[in-house]
Amino acid sequence: MKKGWIALIVVGVILLFVLLWGVGTRNSFVTKTEEVNQRWSQVENVYQRRMDLIPNLVETVKGSASFEKSTLEGVINARARATQVTVNPTSAQDLQKFQAAQGEISQALSRLMVVVEKYPDLKSTTAFRDLQSQLEGTENRIAVERREFNKAAQEYNRSIQMFPEFLIANWMGLEKRGYFQADEGAAKPPKVKF
Question: What is the predicted pLDDT for the residue at 184?
């Protein structure tokens, strides 16, 4: 009878250990999921900041320079398309669509900045310089937040694939998160022709 009780206690302790491990693992996945979601929220936040700056930048340029209407329209249209993209950050395809829309804005803004070089009066306008500085700061924030999102997504993806944690991850129905990637041809500067 003593051996039966000892075996039962050992089995009970092992089951308790497995249960506690499972609860701890599940809770760590919840924490990592929330970290990725929070990082995604920060990415959206800085992109929204850029979206909010663009109309002011365009109006400042319109008021200070009379030049290619198509350049301004390109910026406005890229912004409009980007605001229509809805993203589920758990979907790699949605993340790529979002990134493509934001890439269009980046290209349009690059063309705008190159065209602005032709207008020294515009560059000396305080409102334009302030907006340009804010936009530059926002672009830096975007790069930082994208990097932080990728780090959080990498940690999350790694944790849901490792043994034995992947057993709990599969049970919870967790899927890998997508990453931001450099735009195709991002290493080459944009070509602007006049």
Answer: 62
CB atoms within 10 A of CB 8: 10
Report how far residue 27's alpha carbon sits from residue 31's, in angstroms, rounded to the nearest whole number: 6
Model confidence, pTM: 0.65
CB atoms within 10 A of CB 100: 14
| Helix ranges (DSSP H) in the chain | 2-64, 69-83, 92-116, 120-124, 126-161, 165-172
Measure the CA–CA gap between 156 and 41, rounded to whole angstroms.
16
pLDDT beneath 70, residues of the chain: 1, 61-72, 89-90, 115-116, 118-124, 182-194
> Which residues contact residue 77 at a Cβ distance below 8 angstroms, ignoring those fewer than 6 apart?
108
| 55: amino acid identity, one letter | P
Q: Residue 170: what residue type?
A: N
Look up residue 177 and give its two tokens. Answer: 């998160």
Q: What are phi and psi of 173, to 5 degrees?
A: 75, 30
Could you give the CA distance from residue 105 to residue 157 in angstroms, rounded to a whole number?
Answer: 29
End-to-end CA distance of the chain: give it in Å, rounded.
94
Measure Cα distances from 134 to 18, 57, 107 in Å.
Answer: 52, 10, 17
Residue 184 is given by DSSP the state T
Per-domain boundaries in the chain: 2-29+53-172
